[in-house]
């Protein structure tokens, strides 16, 4: 992945089909979740997603609905 944070090159999803991580709106992707479970930078990915307001897709092993719950639990989330 070019142009991203340094941790992107360590991501388990590097080289995977991006479509796996963007299932139909609100759905989970078992394959993406499997990849995320084994990822050494899963936390960094989730933090990046929350800080940059990524609302779609699987990020840091979380679905859109799971991230909405996280955002409701904190006060400063985009």
From TrEMBL:
Q: Which residues bind [4Fe-4S] cluster?
A: 13, 36, 39, 45
> What species is given as this protein's source?
Nonomuraea recticatena
Q: How is it modified after translation?
A: Upon Fe-S cluster removal intramolecular disulfide bonds are formed.
Recite the UniProt keywords alphabetically. Answer: 4Fe-4S, Cytoplasm, Disulfide bond, DNA-binding, Iron, Iron-sulfur, Metal-binding, Transcription, Transcription regulation
Spell out the protein name for this chain.
Answer: Transcriptional regulator WhiB
Tell me the cofactor note.
Answer: Binds 1 [4Fe-4S] cluster per subunit. Following nitrosylation of the [4Fe-4S] cluster binds 1 [4Fe-8(NO)] cluster per subunit.
Role, per record: Acts as a transcriptional regulator. Probably redox-responsive. The apo- but not holo-form probably binds DNA.
Q: Where in the cell is it found?
A: Cytoplasm
The record places domain 4Fe-4S Wbl-type at: 12-69
Which InterPro entries does this chain map to?
A: 4FE4S_WBL (IPR034768), Whib (IPR003482)
The organism's taxonomic lineage, starting at the top? Bacteria, Bacillati, Actinomycetota, Actinomycetes, Streptosporangiales
